[in-house]
Design brief:
By secondary structure, this protein is of the alpha+beta class. It is 38% helix and 12% strand. It has helices at residues 9-16, 21-36, 65-76, 106-118, and strands at 40-41, 47-49, 52-56, 81-85. It has a two-stranded antiparallel ribbon. Strands 3-4 form a two-stranded parallel ribbon. A hairpin with a 5-residue loop joins strand 1 and strand 2.
Length: 128
């Protein structure tokens, strides 16, 4: 269950101190999917094998959620199980960066879920 945190390498470096994050994350997800395929859930509702991608929405679309979802939809599989997480909490040094120093709004979360559905992603996307 890998995370795909940021699309923009400058942001990944600024927020997490990681260079070339996006290229490495994309290559890793492609390889993981090649090895295990889409998530398979048995008759008891237990994940048996396959890829499940987590993505944490950041305030003000700082993570470029739409680009990440487009990549998954077009380059991995529309059947990828995507867990779009709305549980961001500003902590540590977030107070130094106004663009991420708040919780996400319900509108930001709904927008991400709706966009995922528009792209054809449907597993793990809950619009309730």
């Amino acid at each position: 269950m890998p995370d795909f945190k940021y699309w923009d390498n400058e942001k990944s470096f600024n927020y997490s101190g990681v260079k070339d994050y996006c290229e490495i994350a994309k290559a890793a997800l492609i390889e993981m999917h090649r090895q295990v395929g889409d998530l398979v859930i048995n008759k008891n509702g237990i994940a048996v094998k396959g890829l499940l991608v987590r993505h944490l929405i950041l305030p003000n679309n700082t993570a470029d959620t739409e680009k990440i979802l487009e990549f998954i939809s077009k380059n991995i599989s529309k059947d990828t199980y995507v867990n779009i997480i709305n549980q961001y909490r500003p902590c540590f040094q977030a107070s130094r960066r106004s663009e991420i120093n708040r919780l996400i709004t319900s509108n930001e979360y709904r927008k991400a879920l709706n966009y995922a559905r528009e792209l054809g992603l449907h597993r793990g996307i809950n619009l309730t």
